[in-house]
Amino acid sequence: MKQLLTAFGVALMMIAQAQKHSYLYFIGFKDKNNSSYSVKKPQEFLSAKAMQRRAKYNVKIEESDLPVNASYINNICGKKIKFKSSSKWLNGILVEVSDTNFIQDVAEISFVATVQRVAQYERIQKSREIFIEEESSVTEGEKEKLTSEELQNIYGNSFDQIQMLQGIALHQMKFTGEGITIAVLDAGFLNAHKLKWFRQLQRNNQIVLCKDFVDNDNYVFDGNAHGLEVLSCMATGDTGSYVGTAPKSKYLLLRSEDAETEQLVEEINWSVAAEFADSCGVDLITTSLGYNVFDDTKSSHTKEQLNGKTALVTRAAEMAFSKGMVVVCSAGNEGDNPWRHIGFPADAPHALTIGAVNRNRVIASFSSQGPTADGRIKPDVSALGVSAAVQTPDGEISMANGTSFSAPITAGLVACLMQAHPLSSPQQINDAIRQSSDRVGIQDTIYGLGIPDFYLAHCLLGDSAFDTTKDHLINVNYNVDDKLLSFTIYSASLQIFGFKLIAENGNIIKTGTQQCHGKKFQHFYIDELTLPVSTKGYGFLLENDAHQTFIKLF
Fold first, then answer.
1. pLDDT above 50: residue 5
2. Helix residue ranges, H only, 77-186
3. Has residue 16 got a pLDDT over 70?
4. What is the rounded CA–CA span in Å between residue 353 and residue 331?
């Protein structure tokens, strides 16, 4: 099921051509024997940056890195079987035929392992000139234009979604994603090249390149706006109006999704795009695409396949992680639907899968749930995905719903964390984010580990400016839906803290004590606590014999 936010009606300048009947097949090969490439000469198929990343994380260059055997491709492809793309990780090629009779004998070739139809197209071809006509309905949630009164300080409309994850603290330390390259795998970036903030990215050389793996060209600025809105959550740097979570990162804009259909070929496109990102030396992949049901229902996935190793796109996500990249995935928007569970590749064991919450830190009803078929907790963490601020193709800022947005909001701060800790591996980055979340110890298959605190994750990875000789009250949060108060303490020594929850009028709502171990971050919870959020002014006081710390809750 697509997790696409189709926000705008569009008018297309169409040039009618003959009705096209075409079929796409994926042909998998048994081996890479007699390859013209060698793992001893990786510079022939990997960029210097990709090799540097492997060296930094001690990732071996192996057979899966070798391109598909060219002689196999030449043996199969010609006038009747057209080559579309190759996947070195899946060790196969995507081909197009107009007559399925041409493909029948391919399965009998000695080096061919599998032949599978992955798409069928019967539609009039169109020119790719697309422009906005009017705004229409959305699939992930209603949008609402922000008013000028809602602009807040330097972050403006994006303040809430960054502050929820304590990302502003990283930005204040000059960790804004600089030096990190992010690949955005999506369905199109409609009009992105026309927007003011995007031109600024181009002037700063932050757009590394663009590539369309659906239409096999380098133009991604037409068709669908979903990728634009995803990109804006990270890349926008419009001070005073909207600031993304990684405004200084570099970006690859990769279209792998055909928004007009839902076919298995899109999982192959995703894999090919991820391989391309890897070969370019990308540090992080973020994707707000997910799959479960296809137009050809015989290709659809089952919940039993949510095991982290079956779906092509899940296997590709795992391979990307194994090559030293962090992979951030949206959990999906199936929480209200019969499927209800996460999709693919959100089930990948090493993907950081993101659910969606509202501003009260309550899970969105549409946010897809776990567990995986093999019993793992998913989503991993959650972030703001209800009324999240996004840029739109007409240059406006709107509010939108979907894990499509909680994922890139999180991904941008992952890039900031990677900048702050360049020697930390993808596994260490993911672990710190998970451990920083506000439901560690009480995690479930709805919120996952909860909402991460990126400043705490930064401290967990080793912040030289963090004074480990002093006590710290890291954060205090309240979830009105679960009536759950959570707080995190760093204690410099073994000791007992007292705490008080105090109302604005001075009334003490709750008191208690907590014993803390020395040199350790610890999460604590108070459940069954009813606080009317309409009442402002609650505060949380933490004290020991030496000092007091007060945090205003809301």
1. no
2. 159-163, 167-172
3. no
4. 5
User: In 3D, which of 521, 365, 533 has the Cα closest to residue 457?
Assistant: 521
Residue 180 contacts residue 283 (beta carbons within 8 Å): yes
- Does residue 349 have a cis bond before it (omega within 30 degrees)? no
110 contacts: CB under 8 Å, gap ≥ 6:
none
- Output the pLDDT for position 238: 80
Q: Would the CA dihedral through 73, 76, 82, 86 be positive or negative? A: negative
422-427 contacts, C-beta under 8 A, 24 or more apart: 422/56, 422/179, 423/56, 424/461, 425/57, 425/324, 426/57, 426/321, 426/324, 426/325, 426/326, 426/350, 427/350
Kindly tell me if the per-residue pLDDT of 214 is higher than 80: yes
Helix axes 454-462, 426-435, angle to 10 degrees: 120
CA 435/CA 380 separation, integer angstroms: 10
What single-letter DSSP state applies at residue 546?
A: S
CA 88 to chain centre: 23
Q: Which amino acid is present at 309?
A: K
* 68-82 confidence digits (pLDDT tens): 999 999 999 998 999
Helices and strands per DSSP (H, E), number in the chain: 11, 25
Report d(CA 250, CA 460) in Å as an integer: 26
What is the reported pTM? 0.88
Centre a 10 Å sphere on the Cβ of residue 510 and count the other Cβ atoms it contains: 13
Domains and CATH numbers, the chain: 19-124 (3.30.70.80), 128-459 (3.40.50.200), 467-552 (2.60.40.3080)
Write the pLDDT tens digit of every residue in 165-178.
Answer: 999 999 999 999 99
